[in-house]
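User: My collaborator sent over this chain with a note saying "see what the structure looks like." That's all I know about it. Can you take a look?
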Amino acid sequence: MALMLLLAVFGQFSVMAQADTEQGQKGIHPSLSGVGVEEKLGTMLPRDVVFMDSDGRQVTLGQYMDQGRPLLLNFIYHNCPMLCSITLEALGQTLSEMDWTPGEQFEVLSISFGARETPEMAARARERMLTKLNREEASEGWHFLVGDSLNVHLLTDALGYSFKWVASTQEYAHPAVLVFAGEDGKVTRYLHGLDLPANDVRKALVEASEGKVGSVMDQVLMYCYQYDPGSNSYVLHATNLMKVGGMLTLMLLGVGLFVFWRRERDRQSGGVPHFTSG
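Assistant: Without extra context I'll predict from the sequence alone. Here is the result:
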């Protein structure tokens, strides 16, 4: 029976399009051997890798780094006979829950690792997802790319993203992960899995932009929250939270003392008689 497997590979999530249920329950399916993500935080995205966009134009990854916005990358493949497109649908759902829009605060690169896939396939996926997202501005910021095997592997190897073709099922086994990078291409965060909270994606984008994207409240939240690999999420950082609480307490005390001082001054000045000559 065909199904989508979500398995932990060295603590990280992997996705496979088809697998046998009984084998999957006994342990990692043999087809998933060598599939996963080796996080390479701090590495630089290769600027010169070449892809084709959904309009059939040749582009380089560096072109998207020159937009002055953080990057969100996810890996997909379009020619999937079963449920692999769930990774793309899940990203679309997360983006729909955010009040930020691709092309305004950040750029999204949905990159196919299927070396034989075409710009036409990318165009159909792009149209479908943009229609669902229903935000006009996103058409300038959500990019669908395809490439040959050499360039795909130059990028995936740089990011530690491992996938493989499974001949028995005629499908790819691949991890489900979002990769975040700054406008300079420096990789800052990996978020694993399918159902990712919009708030975590927002925090990862603020982190990738080094505070250039987001409100003052976003900066405060990033100070109070810290990414926890164990939970694959951002959690409260107790020490920083206490520091912020202490600062707020001092500010409130200062405001209170200032108000008290003003009232006392006004009371005293009001009790002193004023004399005029005439």
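A starting point for your reply to your collaborator: The longest strand covers residues 71-76.
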